[in-house]
Amino acid sequence: MSSLDIPGLDALKAEVCALHAELLRWGLVAWTSGNVSARVPGHELMVIKPSGVSYDDLTPDKMIVADLDGNLVEGTLSPSSDTAAHAYVYRNMPEVGGVVHTHSPYATAWSAVAQPIPCAITAMGDEFGDDIPVGPFALIGDDSIGQGIVSTLKGHRSPAVLMRQHGVFTIGKNAKAAVKAAVMCEDVARTVHLARQLGPVARLDQADIDKLYDRYQNVYGQQAAQQPIEPQGVEA
Ligand SMILES: O=C(CO)[C@@H](O)[C@H](O)COP(=O)(O)O
Questions:
Q1: Residues 166-214: pLDDT tens digits?
Q2: What is the residue extent of each domain of the chain?
Q3: Which ranges carry the Class II aldolase/adducin N-terminal domain (predicted)?
Q4: Which atom of ligand 1 is nearest to the CA of 52?
Q5: Which of 32, 46, 81 best tests ligand 1's pocket when mutated (most atoms within 8 Å of CB)?
């Protein structure tokens, strides 16, 4: 149980912990790669997993609380290698409540060749509303990755970025939405890759992408439970 007097923090740790199992369930991670974090609503804090701990051994009490400069606030284990990157995203994109990182194989293959995934199928228009962009190469450990995520995704509809020669980072209104974006990113990365083996792949018309995105974000499913993040303006 958390020693911080923050209502809902224990539940958020349990949620972030449980979402790591989703990365395994959907085949997005190998061994201990990948991580999920969530902003602590109303506080300059985030919850993220510890570094390099087997997913089978993750428990809510092992989750780390860090501030939005990436400093450890609560937890006995070393924080995720990507803590500073996630923190940078929360600092610079106030609309974001969850961040996910994976090395899911098809999407990471696109990142390895630094090619955006063209918006060629309706599922991409729905979830991403555009091509899935490539972000810059950045070394792991400080907030360089975060800077690359923010500079690529700020003002972009896509909640996913392919960080060059590294892997996928996704954002969402909350951690579950960011996990969903990571699942969908891998799905479309595989489908568009397979399509390219069969022949040339054409991007959908922008007008159709706009209609698909609008319908999926505003009409599809149970709208009370589905709240997309609105792209915010690019920093001057
Ligand atoms: O991308 C990398 C390392 O290449 C890391 O993101 C790991 O994949 C996960 O690190 P931890 O969250 O376990 O520190």
A1: 999 999 999 999 999 999 999 999 999 999 999 999 999 999 999 999 9
A2: 9-220
A3: 14-193
A4: 13
A5: 81
